[in-house]
From TrEMBL:
Identification of the protein by name: N-lysine methyltransferase
Matches recorded under InterPro entries: N-lys_methylase_SETD6, Rubisco_LSMT_subst-bd_sf, SET_dom, SET_dom_sf, SETD3_SETD6_MTase
Organism encoding this protein: Ceratopteris richardii (Triangle waterfern)
Family: Belongs to the class V-like SAM-binding methyltransferase superfamily. Histone-lysine methyltransferase family. SETD6 subfamily.
Purpose of the protein: Protein-lysine N-methyltransferase.
Classification of source organism: Eukaryota, Viridiplantae, Streptophyta, Embryophyta, Tracheophyta
Length: 545
């Protein structure tokens, strides 16, 4: 991605620029590219040049060196045009790029690619359709592209007409907008409330690791750095052949002498300014890559915003559309039955998740469905008399719980409603039901809903959802994934990885539901646990009510 930009010259000029903008980088860091940067071959990353310790400040970045809506030369114009948020930042980036060497960020921008081509919003249409079919991203990307075009037509093109000198058409085309968007999506950080999101030099060099990051980027408002010039001749040599790409202007110490930025901070705490700090949150041994985290993101979100997926991502999910659940319900029950049960379900605070125009339920990486989906399927299958009994009980509970001001009555009512009969069976079922070996604690509330009917519904839903991926089986996808890995086809690899991880989640859901179904059948368990006569009587309510 950086090949054409990463020359010795551009790195030297970036280093000098950091110096001029008071950006401080610990000499314990190496900025590397290629295979030294463990996860990605043609990108940059940061490694430890010596053993580093938790708590060290390894970089200090003045906020005025960040490119934000406040610091850009177009700040007033963007303010007048009422362009803010992500869209404003993309225009600010395009604006600074259009100024070439006249931009105060030129040496930094010169290091960035024009476009991060790994992001699906800039893939060819046939790649989007072929690679992403069935995945969480397919419709999202198509929708995104429409919205991006609309934004450009409504907000950016008019700017080029109103201020042709500041926003010349040739630098603010739709293509430029898409390209700038990929950089803001994959590299911007929230600076603070005043600046909002911005392009943060140095902080954007760290690659991502889920749940196991080495650094945090921290807002440290009461800190300032004095100008501490270091002779440029003391810099590390930047060798074209090696993976080492350079370091900061304060990197002139040996590893044994290595100074973290904490030292600089201590020396300068008389003088105050606004800066961001990059702080180590764990020890990092010499030679290891230093990772940041971009958040607890599913593979679909990682691919969407950053152009890659992560193996064994614990935050992976797959969604089942509400429409598909309704399709299931209406094919087994009358419309009137479905309407009434949905009303009942919603009355007690349940709803699908929503995003843009879609409503859906999440299935976790372990295959565990969102509880609201289980409640819905459970209620859908309840015999009519049990629904009526439940209504009465819930009404009584409502009165009781309302008296307790500290409680959210809806949640408590649901909890009690479902906990009560579950309690009778808890012990028996707890011992035989687990989602995965790693999940030690069993959610009794969730288990309760895995009646045979619910299990069958879940199997139906997971199989139907899987059909969205087309004809190929999961095993065939796995073979294609291996091929893509061997051929170094990154786009295809990450798209296939997303498919495979989503389909594996569905398979886990199907497998667990099937296992439960088998157990229910072998034990001839009554499908409707709420048949127990006294389940709803006041005398059997938990004592707290
Ligand atoms: C903030 S930049 C990190 C520095 C970047 N590697 C560079 O060359 O400047 C984010 C981009 O780095 C890459 N990246 C970060 N973490 C990654 C990971 N765990 N696996 C693959 N690519 C990753 C992705 O291309 C992502 O969009």
């Amino acid at each position: 991605m950086y090949q054409s930009h990463l020359t010795r010259r551009s790195l030297r000029s970036f280093t000098r620029w950091m110096e001029s903008r008071n950006i401080r980088l610990s000499d314990g860091l190496n900025i590397v590219k290629g295979e030294k940067c463990g996860i990605v071959c043609d990108e940059l990353g940061v490694t430890a040049a010596c053993d580093l310790q938790e708590g060290e400040v390894i970089a200090i970045i003045p906020k005025d060196a960040c490119l934000t809506l406040r610091t850009t030369g177009a700040a007033n114009l963007l303010n007048d045009a009422q362009l803010s948020g992500g869209l404003g930042l993309v225009v600010a980036l395009m604006y600074e790029r259009s100024r070439g060497e006249a931009s105060p960020w030129f040496p930094y921008l010169n290091l960035l690619p024009l476009c991060h081509k790994a992001l699906p919003i800039v893939w060819e249409s046939d790649e989007i359709h072929n690679f992403l079919l069935g995945t969480e991203l397919h419709s999202v990307i198509l929708e995104d592209r429409k919205l991006i075009e609309e934004d450009w037509r409504e907000c950016i093109w008019p700017l080029t007409q109103e201020y042709p000198t500041e926003f010349p058409e040739e630098h603010f085309s739709l293509e430029h907008y898409f390209s700038a968007k990929t950089l803001v999506s994959s590299r911007s950080f929230e600076v603070d409330d005043y600046h909002g999101y911005g392009m943060v030099p140095v902080a954007d060099l760290f690659n991502h690791k889920t749940n196991n990051e080495d650094v945090h980027v921290m807002d440290e408002p009461n800190l300032c750095i004095i100008d501490e010039s270091v002779s440029t001749s003391d810099r590390h040599p930047v060798e074209e052949e090696s993976n080492y790409l350079g370091c900061s202007f304060i990197d002139n110490l040996t590893n044994a002498q290595h100074h973290s930025c904490s030292t600089i901070k201590e020396r300068n705490d008389q003088c105050r300014n606004e800066v961001l700090e990059i702080v180590l949150v764990r020890d990092v041994p010499m030679g290891s890559e230093i990772f940041n985290t971009y958040g607890e993101l599913s593979n679909a979100s990682l691919l969407h915003r950053h152009g890659f997926t992560e193996p064994d991502n614990p935050f992976d999910i797959v969604n089942i559309d509400y429409v598909l659940v309704m399709q299931y319900c209406t094919s087994f029950f009358s419309k009137c039955h479905v309407r009434n049960r949905i009303r009942f379900w919603r009355k007690y605070g349940c709803a699908p998740l929503t995003s843009q125009a879609s409503e859906y339920f999440e299935i976790e990486a372990s295959g565990k469905p969102q509880p609201e989906l289980l409640f819905l399927l459970y209620i859908m299958h309840l015999p009519e008399k049990d629904v009526l009994a439940a209504e009465v009980a819930l009404h009584e509970l409502d009165t009781a719980v309302k008296a307790d001001c500290a409680m959210n009555w809806e949640m408590k009512a649901w909890k009690t409603f479902f906990d009560f009969p579950a309690n009778h069976l808890k012990r028996a079922r707890c011992n035989r039901y687990t989602w995965s070996k790693s999940e030690g604690e069993i959610d009794s509330c969730i288990m309760f809903f895995f009646t045979s009917n619910v299990c069958e519904s879940l199997i139906w839903l997971s199989e139907k959802r899987d059909q969205a991926y087309g004809q190929a089986t999961l095993e065939e996808d796995l073979k294609l994934l291996e091929d893509a890995r061997q051929r170094d086809n990154e786009k295809l690899f990450h798209a296939l990885y997303l498919r495979v991880s989503e389909r594996s989640i569905l398979r886990r859901l199907c497998h667990h539901s099937f296992e439960e179904l088998k157990k229910n059948r072998s034990q001839k368990r009554d499908d409707c646990l709420l048949h127990q006569k006294d389940a709803y009587t006041r005398k059997n309510m938990p004592r707290e009510y």
